[in-house]
Amino acid sequence: MLSLLTGKIKIVAMGMLAALLPILYILGRKDGTKLNENKYIKHDLEQEIAKSEFYKSMESDEITSVDTRDELVTRLRDKGL
């Protein structure tokens, strides 16, 4: 009698787990997507900060115009784009 009751409890537990697996899968995918989006947003923010720092440094430079090719090459080698 006890083994019959234990068997039924095991069957019910397995059925509940089988019903819960798709729900856990969907929730896991949803959280994974949010983490991935946050990673891309942080990367974009870092790029924007780098751009703004670059433009600030370009603004503070003494040389604002480049007349010859040699000046352009020298500027690019020293300061980058």
Q: Major β-sheet, in short?
A: none
Low-pLDDT ranges: none
Name the average pLDDT.
85
Number of helices: 2
Proportion in helices: over 70%
Keywords for this structure?
81 residues; mainly alpha; 2 helices; 86% helix
Word description of this protein:
By secondary structure, the protein is mainly α. The protein has a domain at 22-57. 86% of the residues lie in helices and 0% in strands. It has helices at residues 2-60, 69-79. The longest helix is centred in the middle third of the chain and has 59 residues, at 2-60. The protein is rod-shaped.
Q: Would you kindly provide a brief summary of this structure?
A:
The chain is mainly alpha-helical. The chain has helices at residues 2-60, 69-79.
Question: What order do the helices and strands come in, and which of them pair?
Answer:
Layout: H1 2-60, H2 69-79
